[in-house]
Specification:
Elements lengths: L5 H16 L6 H8 L4 H7 L2 H23 L5 H8 L1
Helix pairs in contact: 1-2, 1-4, 3-4
Length: 85
Amino acid sequence: MPRPDSRSRILAAATPMFARHGLNGVSVRSLASAAGVNLSMISYHFGGKEGLYAEILKEQFEGFRYIDDIANGDLPPLEKCEQYI
């Protein structure tokens, strides 16, 4: 199985770190180490730690749009429940 690209590895490592420690509680060095990438890859992909944090927030909030789509859709209640799950 191929190893995920560096951008995906950074996102996967940073999401729980930011959730646990917040933006200011995580260093760029610790993010890079946890993702197994060179420190410069965070700047390359996201422009820095703040850009990475913004991308994670964007991904996390994207799920709310789908919830709204399901709630306002024309599906029967049981199918709406299945869609939520």
